[in-house]
Write a structure and sequence with these properties.
Elements: H1 8-29, H2 33-45, H3 50-62, H4 65-92, H5 120-135, H6 137-156, H7 162-182, E1 198-200, E2 210-214, H8 218-233, E3 238-241, H9 248-258, E4 261-266, H10 268-281, E5 285-289, H11 295-299, H12 305-314, E6 316-325, E7 329-331, E8 334-338, H13 339-351, H14 357-371, E9 375-379, E10 382-393, E11 414-420, H15 426-435, E12 445-450, E13 452-462, E14 464-465, E15 472-488
Parallel strand pairs: 2-3, 2-4, 4-5
Antiparallel strand pairs: 1-6, 6-7, 6-15, 8-10, 8-14, 9-10, 9-13, 10-11, 11-12, 13-15
Helix pairs in contact: 2-6, 3-4, 4-5, 4-7, 5-6, 5-7, 6-7, 9-10, 13-14
Main location: membrane
GO molecular function: hydrolase activity; kinase activity
GO cellular component, one term: plasma membrane
Length: about 500
């Protein structure tokens, strides 16, 4: 009587196992100096996930918001995967490790004592790489290649069969993808902003027709140096120097009336005043960096006097947004309520005592930390007690209570960020959400983007803007004037 035919599943299992062993032998027997040199150190680096922990620390410390989120998601995916593999799957299917005498030059220093299926190193690698990639695609692509190399190292060092590695990859990827279903990745995409509005105007190489209003005292004396550079590069430009008793509004109005092109060199407050007159007359504005920080000048590509002169000579003009406060005051950069106006007011008060700006800044910060209290207002009708409130002209980098730099000044939105007071463990919760890259989910941090934002309150509150302490208001409406100001600049016209 003939033996019964083997079960098809058993035949398949035996065939796959035989293929697995043959593939292992092929890698083990391959005479490759490159594998001999790289595989054992790489495999050892991935022991206990050390490699991935170091990369996660780098992403969290040096990367942007999506990198920090990716690092957190990658580590969580890795931890869950390791638990499933080591405490579950390895016990369900206790496969023996391969005999790795064929790889003496690159085999691991010691044979792992756990069972072989699936590969824990490969599972952790896939979980981390895909977890990071779900939040930051570029980093994910790079880590996918590294994860694949780690999987290869487990075969090349004789620790696993290829089937163990493939199964590990599948488990790690599955855990990361399942995690994305439970906690969806954050979508950082923004509405696409139309291309910059750019034009060319006819200008004279020597600056004829340009009237520059300049504050010699700005930037702790930088204004005087800038005046000399302008006279040297643009000899026919007219420079109107402000004095301590000058009425800047009158000077600006007179300059705007007779100039073909307006120029300004001073702090952000001076620049904003000239910008308002440039808007009213429709004339292009050249912004020379003569203030302390030069936020607006830097963001339009006017880092140096030479860069501004080059823009003027080439007639490169772009249209950028400005912000109107109650349709009366023009703002170019930012506005704040709460702690920041208190800081500006205190710093100004200390500077009047003829101490250095750095010392005045430190004393003002100390004063605010000791004495500043939340401001109770209504933001678009929603009551809020805010300890920090920031409003920017255009988007200021990634979400954070510490705004970054603007990449555009013509996107047509106000960037509003604020911290709400009154939550338990507010600062701890804020720090945790910031480190994890999920600050938008925080109950302490709020943000909105809109073309118009209104703030009102029962008690007057101070609105600081463009480095000035500002005035008291019970209602402040901020409105974007889309691409209303024409400026000479480089970064917006390339």
């Amino acid at each position: 009587m003939s033996d019964p035919a083997p079960h098809p599943l058993r035949t398949l299992h035996e065939g796959l196992s035989d293929l697995d062993r043959r593939l292992f032998d092929a890698v083990a027997d391959s005479p490759s100096p490159l594998l001999d040199l790289t595989m054992r150190p790489l495999s050892a680096a991935a022991d206990h996930s050390k490699l991935w922990l170091v990369i996660a620390a780098g992403l969290g410390g040096l990367g942007g918001l999506s990198s920090r989120r990716g690092a957190v998601r990658g580590i969580v995916s890795l931890a869950v995967t390791s638990l499933i593999v080591n405490q579950g799957l390895k016990r369900i299917y206790p496969r023996r490790r391969p005999v790795f005498d064929g790889v003496p030059l690159r085999r691991a220093r010691r044979q792992p004592t756990s069972t072989s299926f699936p590969s824990g190193h490969s599972a952790a690698a896939a979980a981390f790489a895909i977890g990071v990639g779900l939040e930051n695609r570029t980093a994910g692509y790079a880590l996918a290649g590294l994860a694949g190399a780690v999987g290869l190292s487990r075969v090349a060092t004789g620790a696993h069969y290829p089937g163990d590695v493939l199964a590990g990859f599948a488990v790690g990827a599955g855990v990361a993808i399942a995690g994305a279903r439970l906690v969806p990745p954050v979508d950082d995409s923004r509405t696409m902003t139309p291309e910059p509005t750019v034009e060319r105007v006819e200008t004279e190489h020597d600056g004829a027709g340009l009237v520059v209003v300049l504050n010699p005292a700005s930037g702790d004396g930088t204004g005087t140096r800038v005046a000399e550079e302008i006279r040297s590069a643009l000899p026919r430009a007219e420079i109107v120097e402000l004095s301590a008793d000058s009425d800047i509004e009158t000077v600006a109005a007179d300059a705007a009336e007779r100039a073909e092109f307006l120029g300004v060199a001073g702090g952000d407050g001076t620049v904003a005043t000239l910008a308002a007159h440039a808007v009213a007359t429709g004339k292009p504005l050249a912004v020379f960096p003569a203030g302390t920080f030069n936020h607006f000048a830097l963001d339009i590509g006017s880092e140096t006097v030479a860069a501004v002169v080059d823009s003027i000579r080439n007639g490169r003009v772009a249209k950028v947004d400005v912000v109107w406060l109650n349709d009366e005051k023009l703002l170019l950069n930012t506005a704040s309520i709460g702690a920041y106006p208190d800081f500006v007011e205190a710093r100004t008060r200390y500077q009047k005592r003829r101490i250095g700006r750095a010392t005045a800044t430190v004393r003002a910060m100390r004063h605010v930390l000791r004495h500043s209290s939340p401001v109770t207002v209504r933001i678009e009708g929603r009551p809020a007690a805010v300890s920090f409130f920031f409003l920017g002209n255009s988007m200021y980098g990634a979400p954070s209570f510490v705004p970054g730099r603007r990449s555009r000044l013509d996107d047509g939105v106000l960037d509003v960020r604020y911290l709400e007071d009154g939550h338990r463990y507010a600062w701890s919760r804020l720090l945790l959400s910031w480190i994890s890259g999920r600050i938008r989910n925080s109950q302490v941090y709020r943000e909105l983007q809109a073309p118009v934002v209104t703030i009102d309150a029962d008690e007057p509150f101070r609105v600081a803007h463009d480095g000035e302490a500002g005035d008291l208001h019970t209602r402040a409406t901020f409105r974007v004037a889309y691409r209303e100001l024409r400026v000479f600049g480089t970064s917006l016209t390339r």
